[in-house]
Structures are given as structure tokens and as C-alpha cells.
Amino acid sequence: MDIWGSILSSISRRVDRSTLNLLKGIQKAEYRNGQLYISTPDVVYKEWLETNLLDEIRESAVDLLGDNLEVHILSSDQEQVEREIKSTEKKTPYRLTNLNPKFTFSNLIIGNCNKIAYQACICVADNLGSIYNPLFIYGGVGLGKTHLLHATAHQVLSKNPKANIIYTTADTFMSELIYYLRNGSILEFRKRYRDVDLLLIDDVQFLQGKERTQIELYHIFNALHLIGKQVILSSDTPPKNLKGLQERLRSRFASGLVVEVKAPDLQTKLSIIRKKSKEMGIYLPSDVCLLIAKTVNSNVRELEGSLNKLKAYSDLMGRSITLDMAREVLKDLFELKEMETSLSIEKIQKEVSSYFGVNINEILGNSRKKKVAMARQIAMYLSRYLTDKTLNEISKAFKKKDHTTVLNAIEKVEKTMEKDRKFKLTVEFLRDKILTS
After folding, report:
1. Which residue segment(s) compose the domain that 270 sits in?
2. Max CA pair span of the chain
3. Which of 81, 83, 165, 394 is the most exposed place for a label (fewest CB within 10 A)?
4. 234 and 167 in one domain?
5. pLDDT tens, 118-127?
6. Cα–Cα distance for residue pair 422/311, rounded to 1 Å
7. CA distance 105 to 147
8. CATH number (domain holding residue 326)
């Protein structure tokens, strides 16, 4: 029997076409022991259904299945919560970690952007409940807040495998609360969350406006804090900016240590790119690493996304990853803010001449001295790959008659870099210095 199809047929006479189209997004409806469970794609869909159409659904369901019917609207997240709860309760009643095994401190790239948050997490893991309690970490999307929370939990478990830990998101916490309330077991929910050594809640900004959930969290927080249990929270904004939260809850969140995770700087992004590309088994030339690092300014997830796209393109086309390929593949993935816009050939010439201790006029001249010739060739090479200038434009900037000299210099630098490691390191050092100065 197609329960939802029958309910939908009945409701269709009482709703408009756009609402009917939305209702067709329902995943499934299951009837068990006088209970009708209707699955929706997400929490937003669930709340819309409960607010606007629950009475109509219940009326149609009763006509179909009989009186004394209870209707439960679930999101896909909530269904997962129920499965986890039932599975966990069979094992250890109050421990639900759901930790990503890859999110450890050993896999975390540390830079100026996250150093303070990292050190705070280490201190908390080593002094659970007695320092920085609560620890509140905030920052933009994709900057590694979840990684820090998971890594802290892993660190605690490495010291005490029997530690009771709950990691959850604000959305899942809210779904669990609804589940226990509907099953008349709110005391079990409270016991579940108060009988832990470490509670980690991600994305608490989603609790804004959820008054019932905030009340429950407030009392859980107070109970844990009173007995010296650790709480770590994350958000996209500091506590003072969470205007949809009760003042007393914002005050509790800000009562410990509040630290920010910022967007990674260039050197940190380069480290992340190199580590991720190694994990993915792809070889990225240094100029490609720099292109991605200079182009992606928002978060780590987009760095990974660019690497995934390059790898897929390379595998499908059977081509090695080069700078030209990266420009071609990534132009649609990002609104490219090319690194060349902030660079000029004059700046490159100045930096190279200063490094080699030669006069810039010598680089622009025809001297064949070994040091001057090397400096000139490297400057031409870097001008080709760090700016958007054509070969003819570069040759004019170096006061050469045509681009052949530039082309020969680039080829010579590339061949020497392949054979001479010291030379290669010199070129890469100059490139990084130019880009970061």
C-alpha cells in the first residue's frame, strides 16, 4: 500500500499546485503500531510541514488508517539520530562520539590562522574541565572548527579510552530533544547529556530562535559546569553576536575562553595544498600550488575542491597537471582573483637584482657575467609565470628586441631546475618572497 501516495491524493484537493509540488519531495511514510512516520529531506522541510500542513496530513491519515493515530514528521537527520540512539543505547547508554578518524591533531596544519585555537584545544585535552571551560571557537565556514573539536576528542580518548564524550551539532541536538520529548523520556535525554566528561557542540548559531532547545541546553551546561565537566562549542560568530540566543546562554558561552579561527595565510594554504595533494596521490608543480593558494581566499574546503577537480580532470584526460591546465580547469570553479594583478615585472626585476646583488641596469643590459645572466634568466622566468604578460611584453620590459631571448631563458631555467636542486630551491625561494612581500 502506498500510504503517502494515498495521503497526497487526499490532500491535493485542498492545497495549491506549488504546495503540492513541495509535498512530492517527501521521501517516504511508514506505518508501525498505530504510529505514522513521515520522512522529509531536512529540518527546514520538516518544520515547514509541521507548521503549515500537519493538521491536513493527520486528517487524511486518520481517514486512511483509522482513529487514535499519531503522526510523526522526521527529517533525514532525525532518522539518523534515532538509529544512532537505538544503536548506542544497546552498547554504552550515554556515549555518542561520531568522530571522524581523519580529524586528529596530527592531520591538522597549524598556522597563524589557527595557532591559538589549536593550543587552547591541547590545553583543554590535557586539563579536562579545569581550564578554559567552556572553550568557544568561532570562525567562517570551512576553516577547520570541526576538525579542532574532533581532534580534541581524539586526544582525550587517547589518554582515557573510557571517557564519556558526546560530539553533536546544534541541529542534531535539537532533533534528539524532539525525539525524546515525543517519546516522553526527557529525563533520559538530560541524563544522557549530563553524564559526560566532554560535550562538544558544533554550529551553535543554529540554536538562535529555538527557545525550548536553548532552555534545555542552558540547564545541561550549568549541570556540567557545576561538576567540572568540559564543554567546547563552535560557531560562525562570537557569542556577543548571537542575537537570537538568550542573554544568559550568551553569557555562559563567553564565560570561558573565546578564540577565533581565521582564514589561512598564503604559507598555511601552501602547506595544506601540499599535504592534501600528497594524500590524494597527485603531483602538483610548485607554480600550480601557488596559483591555487593565491586564488582561493575563502576556506580550506575550496582548496580541497580545487584539488579534487584537478585530479579528476587529470585522470579523465590522461594529462599531467600543469599551470596552463590549472588555469583552464579552475576558471569556472572560482571567480579567479589572479595573483598577477598585484605583481609587476618591475617588482620581480627589483627583487631578483637585490637577491643576487647586481644592479638592475645590468639585468636589463647585455652583460654575460654568470651571476648577471642567471639573475636575468630567473627574472624572465618568474615574469612569465607570475604575471599575465605576453612573451613580447616581457621582452620589451627587459629591453630585448624580440621574445626569443625570453623563451630561451625560460627553457634554460626549467631544465636547470630539473637537474640542480640548489638552483631549484633558489628560484622557489625568490618566487615565494615576491608573492608574499
Report:
1. 266-337
2. 98
3. 83
4. yes
5. 999 999 999 9
6. 29
7. 8
8. 1.10.8.60
